[in-house]
Amino acid sequence: MSSLWQRAAALAQQTPDSRNRAADLFRALSILVVVIGHWLMAAPYMDATGLHMDHILARAPWTQWLTWGLQVMPIFFFVGGFSNGITWDAAARNGRSYGEWLSTRLRRLLYPVFILMLFWTLTAAVAHQVGVAAEVLKVGSQIALVPTWFLAIYAVIVVLAPLARMAWQRWGMLTIVALAVLSIGGDLLYFYFDLKALGWANYLFVWLAVHQLGFVWLDGRCASKASSLTWCLLGALALIGMIKFGPWPLSLVGVPGAEVTNTTPPHLPLLALAALQFGFVLTVQGALNKALQSLRLWTATVLLNSMIMTVFLWHSTVMLLLFAVAVLAGGVGLQAEPVSSAWWLARAVWMLVFIMGLAPFVAIFLRFESASFANSKIPAVWRLLLGVGLIAGGLALAAYSGITGNNVLGLQLNALGLFFIGSLIAGIVPSFARVQV
């Protein structure tokens, strides 16, 4: 750990004063909140009748209010827009090609995902051969891979980011207005015309609109205190109004068994939440940037960002493995009824257990997040585009239904084939010679 801190400190000391350090902090914190939310909401328990897989949002509807604070994916997407705008502008200034820029962005994003998918493919195949029940493997792999859903659409948005940046530079806020109107159309098709399949286009419209907010931030269009507070107020009022008077549910994340969720596909409340969170980020960024001038705080932020994708990708796998150990041990730590006072106390202990269990996974797999791309061959642009399309399809299928199938291997070959073939085509196959040990 000391070597990681020293490496982060060296990078921190090289950071120019002009960097918006709050953006780095919000990227890391948004992912950490998602991790904590997933750990908190899973509520398996054992009683005299056996093991029950429960979820606090379904068990106690009042907890759905918590999702208004725990749903922070909009922050990740507009921080992503901020970062993509910076790197694309730099690439354009320095004469780097679109293919070179895209290849670098995709490798940093998807190298760690490749390792997770490989791990679960091998694990599910071996478990199937030794007789583990297919339903157990399906549920387990689905829970472990659900966190990858956003990477499917985010990878597509990265492909479109330079075009989105150019559109922003020409038409400005009209790009966000246009995407918001398209999102409204998607929800009208979904809720009022019963054309639910067409409503799934909101995966692109909603999240690309949120991504565009990063360009607003980058170019300082709404830097005044009045502007940031206006974003907060309008976002909050729109969110409250939508939930109170519209067809959208209270929870801003998916609830098991719910007929409609605000995330699958994404609906308009996520745009309202994005506006609220965007205003909040603009409001506090000045104070945060000032605080992050502290070398110790900034080093901690750099260190956290250097491993945050590894933490995110493996946190559900670690949770499942530890729950499995508890079940095999007779249900230790799982006897309390969900949402009872004893359950909340046990959950605090479980959080510490999860952190300790995650630490060795981070130590093992962090190297794939920090892989070097020096002297790497850049695939042709058509290969990158085709590869991303296949990868996104594979991740979407895996996140939706796991990776198990009814065949001799016990694997869902459609999802895995799309992902691994896409990775091969796009050059997203880690070379262990390039991985830092």
Describe it for me?
The chain is mainly alpha-helical and 437 residues long. The protein has a domain at 2-163 and 294-426. The chain contains 17 helices and 2 strands. It has helices spanning 2-13, 21-41, 56-59, 67-70, 73-93, 98-129, 134-145, 149-171, 174-191, 196-199, 202-218, 225-245, 268-291, 295-328, 341-369, 381-401, 413-426, and strands at 45-47, 50-52. A two-stranded antiparallel ribbon has the order 1-2. Helix 11 (202-218) runs parallel beside helix 13 and helix 12 (225-245) runs antiparallel to helix 13. It is globular. Mean pLDDT is 92; it is low at 432-437.
Overview in brief:
By secondary structure, this protein is mostly helical. 71% of the residues lie in helices and 1% in strands. A hairpin with a 2-residue loop joins strand 1 (45-47) and strand 2.
* Portion in beta strands: under 5%
Could you name the ranges where pLDDT drops below 50 across 5 or more consecutive residues?
Answer: 432-437
Distance from first to last alpha carbon: 13 Å
Shape: globular
Helix count equals: 17
Mean pLDDT across the residues is 92
Q: What helical percentage do the residues reach?
A: over 70%
For the biggest β-sheet, the strand order reads 1-2
